[in-house]
Amino acid sequence: MYPRIRELREDHDMTQKQVSKYLNMSQTGYSKYETGENDIPTRVLIELSKLYSTTVDYLLGLTNKKRYF
Questions:
Q1: In terms of Cα–Cα distance, which of 3, 36, 30, 4 is closest to 16?
Q2: Which residue in 15, 18, 34, 62 is deepest, having the highest Cβ count within 10 Å?
Q3: From CA 34, how far away is CA 1, in angstroms rounded?
Q4: Tens-digit pLDDT profile for residues 34-54
């Protein structure tokens, strides 16, 4: 799951700082999600799925389909 959120961020040409601002958290805190140092809370997974227009299942690695359709 952790590499996926980094790949999505990079695919959207966003920095960790931009994503952390969207999530209303520190860049350091967000960085720990990408490295797997901290587990990602459900609320953050939902917000990331909205930001990247994808499913939580994709973020979690349960499917390889990025979109609902």
A1: 30
A2: 34
A3: 9
A4: 999 999 999 999 999 999 999
HSE (CB half, 13 Å, CA atoms) of 15? 6
Nearest partner of 19 among 40, 39, 47, judged by Cα: 47
The domain that holds 22 is classified in CATH as 1.10.260.40
Model pTM score: 0.89
Residue located via tokens 């349960």: 62
Q: Does residue 45 lie in a domain region?
A: yes
Question: Does the pLDDT at position 69 exceed 70?
Answer: no
Q: How many CB atoms lie within 10 A of CB 13?
A: 7
